[in-house]
Amino acid sequence: MSYAKVLCVGLVGVTGHLVEVEADLAAGLPAVVISGLPDTALHEARDRVRAAVVNSGQRWPNRRITLNLLPATLPKFGSAFDLAIAAALLGGSGELPLLPLDGVVVLGELGLDGTVRPVRGVLPMVAAAAQAGVERVIVPLGNAAEAAVIPGVRVRAVDHLHRLVSFVRDGTPLIEPPAATPTPALGGPDLADVAGQQVGRRALEVAAAGGHHIALLGPPGAGKTMLAERLPSILPELDDDAALEVTALHSVAGLLPPGGRLLRRPPFQAPHHTATVPSLVGGGSGLARPGAVSLAHRGVLFLDEAPEFSKGALEALRQPLEHGRIQLSRSGGGTVYPAQTQLVLAANPCPCAKPSGDAHCECSPLVRRRYLGRISGPLLDRIDVQVQLMPVRAADLMAADSDAEPSATVAARVAAARQAAATRWACLGRRLNAEVGGPHLRRPPWRLPAWVTAELRGRLDSGSLSARGFDRVIRMAWTITDLDGRDRPDLDDVREAIQLRTGETA
Question: What's the burial of 170, exposed, middle or buried (CB within 10 Å: 0-12/13-18/19+)?
Fold first, then answer.
């Protein structure tokens, strides 16, 4: 037999596609030709596979070898095809009867000594195989626990090419995936650690309940970073679908923790202010990899010292904040990553950031305006909650017995508010108030009475509030209503939402 075929999976972004790895051995000068839009790593597979086959004690066929990866129109990236190529090549040469691999997806990178090394993106690959009807998958031992997360698929692992050969030739059992480790207890920062800042705590609770973006402005030491770092602690755990999305993104990025379990806690990304545009939105040679905004999908993206970020990096966030996804086009192809994240901005009032306030500030009014002006108006207009934090008082800081609510108490209210919103918007296919389109809020049956929105409409007509801001205030009013356990926003809810939007005090 001079022809063989083995199944594999190729990734484009986080979307997997079933790939058929064909091997044809013909008479002629010994050579290896790979077709099917392979990238550089896949072109180099010919040398890796040859060394791995020889060092595993198998005979390398001295014939003209053509390797084709179907569909030929789909770009192929990475080294996950190595093991499937080796199996197809040995099957085509007559060394292996490939009947045991019929309908089995084979994934893995080969070392020169024949060891099978783990690869990135195994979870979305196995998920794509399951969606295509494949019931059996062979993966590297280092990816076995991760692959076993996908239900309905029988996962087996290999640590060496010789083990795969023994399985196909002699029926030697492959390695069972290790048992999934139990999910560790959630720890981390707690809201009870924050001294004072009742306005900031209320703003954080509203942002968490409705999925709203938030900007925290104030002097150093006011608690901006502390509040932002505690936002994940009051967010509900991810459900199965969201956890699978988040885990798949971290798998593609190679950032999954060991243990083979779904990521249930909302992710938290806090890039340094020197971060580049590709590191924030995604990039890299060939096919772009996910950036911080996608790794924070279903979680929190925190930009501390936001005015210190480059203008290009901040402006690049406008599109994903609006649409919940980021579309990247590179020379190696285009891909779309999800980016439904809560953005948290923190900023000092001026470059010198004197904690004593205006009495000791060395910055002129022009310098102050220019500093905060680095956060552009269009970006700031997409931030629902914008609060000014005052310096912490000594009485709050030195209180021996703080009566501040812990994260668990606030999280319970947030979960109840989110459930109320999900029930209300189920007919629209939405789960959070921040996801509901403005036209739905301005039409019956969700349109609020004129006397409730009178002040809001006046601000819109005067130009102090944009149309986008109008809709975002209405969304926050619904969130405040959900937190209070009521059915419909009233005048006080709209006024509080305006204060949270504009940073004004009552």
Answer: exposed
